[in-house]
Amino acid sequence: MKNEKAIVVFSGGQDSTTCLFWALKEFKEVEAVTFQYGQRHDLEIEVAKSIAKELNVKHHLLDMSLLNQLAPNALTRDDIEIEQKDGELPNTFVPGRNLLFLSFATVLASQVGARHIITGVCETDFSGYPDCRDVFIKSCNVTVNLAMDNNFVIHTPLMWLNKAETWELADKLGQLDFVINKTLTCYNGIIAEGCGKCPACELRNRGLEQYLQVKGENM
Fold first, then answer.
1. pLDDT tens digits along 51-70
2. How far apart are CA 206 and CA 138, in angstroms?
3. Minimal CB count within 10 Å: which of 45, 100, 149, 203?
4. Confidence at residue 167, expressed as pLDDT on a 0 to 100 scale
5. Residue 213: helix, strand or coil by DSSP?
6. Is 62 in contact with 33 (CB distance < 8 Å)?
């Protein structure tokens, strides 16, 4: 892989930024793609642009606004309160999002001469999202290859990591402080530590606390 090119599906959040650093280590050339789908906060786009610019990574921004029209929920409407009901998918789940993102990422990859696509989905801490499961990624990989008669490889470096282990990976890549301070994971659009109350912040901050505790014990 060292001599090949990769595309990272990039939101500017903890997971995708960690994946971007992983890709920069593993591949000769890396580009990033961010999808503008009318997400709850435009700041997500600006953070992604800023990180890509700082890391000198070519950045593509693709218009996926139709997804906003088709899938009104707490991530595409700022007037819908974020909630999770027992036995139901979180109302932050955007139906078809990762399916569309990976499909368009592979189309882009075919245009720029990349064979590898990296996404930060994770089944260990997947928040109940069905399109973050390993079985979906494997199925999608087969489908896009059949659809485009190509040999793309979709990589999921975080698939079997919990959040503490994802922080550990960022640290091993030498980028722990960068990911802590410059990424946007918060559903309420607050960079770094976030609001501390939304599900994304709770997961992120709990994982960081767990990792730092273990790191401190091992020092």
1. 999 999 999 999 988 776 76
2. 29
3. 149
4. 97
5. helix
6. yes
Nearest Cα neighbor of 32 from 41, 50, 42 is 50
Contact 62, 11 (CB under 8 A): no
Judge contact between 219 and 79, C-beta under 8 A.
no
How far is 184 from 124, CA to CA, in rounded Å?
20
21/11 Cα distance (integer angstroms): 13
Helix (H, G, I), strand (E, B) or coil at 135: helix
For residue 58, the SS3 value is strand
Packing angle, helices 163-172 and 14-26, rounded to 10: 40
SS3 content of the chain, % helix, strand, coil (to 5): 45, 10, 40
Q: In angstroms, rounded to a whole number, what is the distance separating the alpha carbons of residues 95 and 88?
A: 13
Q: Give the list of residues 6+ apart from residue 48 with CB closer than 8 angstroms, or none.
A: 10, 11, 12, 32, 34, 59
**Per-residue exposure over 164-200, b if at least 16 CB sit within 10 Å of its own CB, e if not:** bbbbbbbbebebbebbbebbbbbbebbbeebeeebeb
Indicate whether this model's pTM tops 0.85: yes
Report H helices in the chain: 14-26, 43-54, 65-70, 97-112, 134-148, 163-172, 176-182, 199-218
* Tokens, residue 65: 């606004």
For residue 127, the surrounding DSSP H or E stretch is none
Q: Which helix (H) or strand (E) holds 118?
A: strand 116-118
Joined together, the tokens standing for residue 211 give: 């990792």
Sheet holding 58-63, edge to edge: 58-63, 29-36, 5-9, 116-118, 153-155
